[in-house]
Amino acid sequence: MIRLKELLFVFALASSLTSYGVVTRVRDLTYVFGAQDNQLFGIGLVSGLNNDGDKNLVSTLAAFANTLQQFGISLPPQALSSKNVALVQITAEIPAYAKQGSKINVLVAAMGDAKSLQGGVLMQTYLFGVDKQIYAMAQGPVTVGGFSLGNSGGGGANVQKNHPTTARIINGGEVVQPIPVNMVRNGAIDLILREGDFTTAARMAAAINTNYSGSSYAVDARTVRVKVPDAYQTPQAQVEFVAQLQAIELNPDTAARIVINERTGTILITGRVKISVCAISHGNIVVRVAESLDVSQPSPFSTQGTTQVVPRTDTQVTEDQARLKAFPDMITVDRIADHLNSLGATPRDLMAIFQLMKDAGSLQAELLVQ
């Protein structure tokens, strides 16, 4: 549970950043369209699982038989056993400009009912792009970040840490052909904002035009188009031009937003949040219920009656005293923190207060509850 002192520090930090402005480089806000990372996908087999593999699934046996057939061994799937083999999916990301022979990391996840991939080795597998072309191959021993010990079938104790059915292969993929990159289209470069915002896009275009007059404009909330000057038309010069673009600095806009995570009790408030005049009263009602057992038995030497166990329930209701507190217009997060802390509210109380403020129209911000 987050403390109010810690929450006040977050508010004050956000306020100071808003007061002085956050200067950020273009490269930290955008990526160049056509030069981004691409996802790869494949399906393969992990062997050497020491009886932790799939339980003779049809798909696993078929893939196993197809693999053997590539090496001249023809066996029907029903003649095989998959207790040491697991069918897995392989995913990876290939960066732009990755050349043939470049190494990439690979993620492996079991697709069947294998209990663990620990100790397994991925057989050589092709990795495909979205266009169904082969761009990389993957193979090698998998690294599992967990373990599973015991009998998980209900017949005994079982100890498990993390997820033993997912694994990684560091540098386990090798690029066989590079992804085509085309970042200049019709003589222009598109910078894509990772967080769409009209104000930030306009400010970015203005900052670029300060260095390259009349070369840039905002297409929409996420795209800033920059015309490549005549002096940067060659491929080598285009790299230098992009490097200069990414080094340009600007002050991005920040949305007025409150994010609440009910599971962890975390509250994040951006520096542009404002609260209009309102009055708040917040109190807690605590109900405590205690159950006990009373024993009723006959008197000594009595010839009649039996001993009875009678349950007893004690209920206590405590309501904290609540005061109505008037809030003025608050335009900075440090003032918001001061007034909310004066209520003695816990983070869970603050969640309820913010939600009521939003319903009443006093909270001038977007409220997101996770």
Question: How are the SSEs ordered, and which strands pair?
Answer:
Blueprint: H1 4-20, E1 24-25, H2 26-29, E2 30-32, E3 38-47, H3 58-69, E4 85-94, E5 103-110, E6 121-128, E7 134-141, E8 143-144, E9 147-150, E10 158-161, E11 166-175, E12 184-185, E13 188-193, H4 198-211, E14 216-218, E15 223-227, H5 235-247, E16 249-250, E17 257-261, E18 266-269, E19 274-275, E20 278-281, E21 285-296, E22 308-319, E23 324-327, H6 333-342, H7 347-360, E24 363-364, E25 366-369
Parallel strand pairs: 17-25
Antiparallel strand pairs: 1-16, 2-13, 3-4, 3-6, 4-5, 5-11, 6-7, 7-11, 8-11, 9-10, 12-13, 13-15, 14-15, 17-18, 19-24, 20-23, 21-22
Brief overview:
With 370 residues, the chain is α+β, with helices and mostly antiparallel strands.
Description of the molecule:
α1 packs antiparallel against α6. Among the domains are: 138 residues, no CATH class; 101 residues, no CATH class. It is 23% helix and 37% strand. β17 and β18 form a beta hairpin. It has a 6-stranded antiparallel beta barrel with strand order 3-4-5-11-7-6. Strands 2, 12, 13, 14 and 15 form a 5-stranded antiparallel sheet that branches. A 3-stranded mixed sheet has the order 18-17-25.
Major sheet: size, sense and barrel closure? Answer: 6 strands, antiparallel, barrel
Termini separation (Å)? 16 Å
- The low-confidence runs, each spanning 5 or more residues with pLDDT under 50, are 1-20
Question: Mean pLDDT, as a whole number?
Answer: 80
